[in-house]
Amino acid sequence: MADEPSKRKRGGGRAGNARRTTSKLPEQMPWRIPVNVDKPTEPLDEDGVHAIHKGAMRILSEIGIEFLNPDACEILKGAGCKVDGTNVRMDEDFVMEMLGHAPAEFTITPRNPNRAIPMGGKHILFGNVSSPPNMWDLKRGKRTGDFEGYKEFIKLTQFFNCIHFAGGYPVEPIDIHARERHLDCLFEKLTLTDKVVHAYSLGKERVEDVMEMVRIAGGMTREEFDAKPHMYTNINSVSPLKHDFPMLEGAMIHARRNQPVIVTPFTLAGAMAPVTMSGAVTLSLAEGLAAIVLLQVINPGAPCAIGTFTSNVDMKTGAPAFGTPEYMRATQMTGQMGRFYGLPIRSSGVCAANVPDGQAMWETSNSLWAAVQSGTNVVYHAAGWLEGGLIASPEKFVMDCDVIQQIQRYMEPATYATTPEDIAVEAIREVGPNGHYFGCQHTQDRYEDAFYSPLISDWSNYEAWELNGGVWTAERAHEMYKGIIEEFEAPPLDIAIRDELADFVARRKAEGGVPTDF
Amino acid sequence: MADEPSKRKRGGGRAGNARRTTSKLPEQMPWRIPVNVDKPTEPLDEDGVHAIHKGAMRILSEIGIEFLNPDACEILKGAGCKVDGTNVRMDEDFVMEMLGHAPAEFTITPRNPNRAIPMGGKHILFGNVSSPPNMWDLKRGKRTGDFEGYKEFIKLTQFFNCIHFAGGYPVEPIDIHARERHLDCLFEKLTLTDKVVHAYSLGKERVEDVMEMVRIAGGMTREEFDAKPHMYTNINSVSPLKHDFPMLEGAMIHARRNQPVIVTPFTLAGAMAPVTMSGAVTLSLAEGLAAIVLLQVINPGAPCAIGTFTSNVDMKTGAPAFGTPEYMRATQMTGQMGRFYGLPIRSSGVCAANVPDGQAMWETSNSLWAAVQSGTNVVYHAAGWLEGGLIASPEKFVMDCDVIQQIQRYMEPATYATTPEDIAVEAIREVGPNGHYFGCQHTQDRYEDAFYSPLISDWSNYEAWELNGGVWTAERAHEMYKGIIEEFEAPPLDIAIRDELADFVARRKAEGGVPTDF
């Protein structure tokens, strides 16, 4: 992947010299596709993997999954499944045969081919928070999501090189009617970013509108679009044991046109899943695999990934909890099972905290490190998430990006290289017992890139920090967020393509958008 | 290890019924010795381990370590090392032979044998922050450490079951003269806690005073004390390449009396160590192993551990940074090398942040998870550390204990158990696609202990949180800290032993304490 020139290095444009001297844009790491070289943390032994697999297979063959979509039932019946109303049962041999068609890795290429993302293998990708109805910032508190807020988060998504894809809407713009929300949102996504985008699987029309817009943005024919992945969707089951109509419909359209589908059941242990973590993981896998089997029947080899969103509730209140020890183990177990089935793995960056404080960061750190430990390939909600996903916060977005950058630096082989020059016996000899290393040639040759340089961490001592205003992390993040929005420049886009996108949106709005029941 | 009855369950005493109904004491996890079952994260391949080992051996044999203690030099000369003034060189065969004497695991037993801690193997132990000159809290800001503050932190150390030992002074009580500070501090430590305590190796007199006090507190004869570990010390080298007089003196006294010595060089890459992380680790190991070799010569089989305190500086300002990606890799590499040498491993919970905010918690989470990943046996500074160790904070102490408890819960096999009852196919069948799991028998049988219950995390939704005052984590931690101090009760101690300790302190003070040059 080519490095993205940072905004600062870009000459001319709207940001002239005068402006650049007072730039509030942070230095950041270049765009890269991190490779997770660590051996995954695997709590399950061979028997444990077998027990979860057999449990999932028993659910699929004995209990069955409800497919609330007649087409899906028809297709599965045709493939030999036992279909009784909406209940579909499938046996292990069939499931394993169908899963055998799913690729272990595939690449999604957005309108800017330099932003292509390989999904699977040792790669780990990070995406923005998706789908909160509300937003919160330090100055305005909690507010209902709107289009202005949406655009700000899309700008943050584009600005940070450590964010690899633009997932769902980082906040729901409630001020745009649902019949045309996807049109306005995708127009902004496809013009303000050049990263991989996503379609909500909320029925045929929305999915096909998004596909058409992604096709236009990439300057592709329909055949070129259908030939390989250019976007993706994520569907959730309705746990326990159900897949609903529009999600299945959207997923099937994606599969038919070779666009990836991530299937992520949302199983809260003790609520819509067993109170035991391996039980919740088993249910989640059964639901997820059932949908992937359907997609493989439709188009053998269709790109799919298995997601985990297994956490637990607070048993005193029923409130969902995130980034807990149980969440971490569920993520690691799902990672093991994903490798067992040969599927790319999705997990998330999550917390239950309501504001970007200490709790928010230990819960988020727990979930992000669990993603790393589990061998996750795609980390959803990695930046900006608060209140169990009900709030998107720009400060949290910036803070999370500092953590994500650290994870990316952590994965660089330079941090643990052991060439003779790294071991540095000659430098140790040269400096001896009375010198220091600041001035020696070994340091001078390396100091510029030797260490991670943070976005928002303040490493000054207390007195310097206090003289500088005594600013806590969330407030520093607020300043950085405002600066990024102020100086944001959209990535290049051919004006003809932009016009074609605008025309498409205008036409579809004139046609009334998509049908809604409200 | 027996569970410690929680303060709440204790009848009578100073905290009567009326008081208990308004108790501010949190529910917490019982005392336990966590077992770290995860396979360690090992960035080094076999060649990497070999390269660091050979580098350390070349430093020891070709460059040598300065032992600024004539007794130490004499002893090493007698053992066949090449001694030139204070410079001591030793060859690989000798080093490996001596390290072969050091035990891979040993147990330290304090005055309460139920608080004994096994050091080594798969065990991981957590201790309080040690040695900051300053303290900070949310209401009073930054202040110089004093004896009142010291006692508060000792109470927190005793209160939290997840803290296994009372390390160094959690804050330096600057208001007590150095000639008698250790006497007052150890009296409080040995009466306010019943956990393993530590002696600073700041010369013979202090070490022997502490040993005598630990002996008295345990009601032991001198022979009983010397027979096995009852306390420990931690020494630092003066990097690069030096061990100073008083640290070596204290360490040698410990080794002669079978009390454990943790040797922890403080090598900041780019300052007192090479700018490359494996180089800084290699230097650290050479320094650490040299001291352990000395102690094995003095008393083959003396209990020792190898510590790591390798981090990096901010190359723009020279400021130390903690909990960075480079710090994590250095910790993991040292863990691998500790296992290579068959020694228990010490690392730390650290951050550069000045206040207990988001940055503090992501840096601390990075360092605590690195401790877990590295197979660390002893985590120093695990609770209460701010500003690179220059500040102790009670709010941070409480917040860190929530993270440490989560790590301990994470290590419980229940979080990833896969018995048929865990996989729960029958419960999944019973609940079916339209039920929920709150009410089913499988949940009812397990919900009380199913999930981690936090100390200070607030899992309520935004509106409930706001109605409850909209309190951020640090402020919630402040309230909890005040409640713990208010309701603190010291563990039982025989009055005769308490008197004997007080008499010893009075006598030693009357003798003038220990000599100081100020």
From TrEMBL, chains A, B:
Key words, A-Z: Methyltransferase, Transferase
Gene Ontology annotations of biological process type: methanogenesis; methylation
GO molecular function list: methyltransferase activity
Family: Belongs to the trimethylamine methyltransferase family.
Organism of origin: Litoreibacter halocynthiae
EC primary class: transferase
Record's protein name: Methyltransferase
Region spans: Disordered: 1-28
E.C. numbers: 2.1.1.-
Record bears the keyword Plastid: no
Gene3D superfamilies noted in UniProt: Trimethylamine methyltransferase-like
Keyword Transcription regulation (UniProt): no
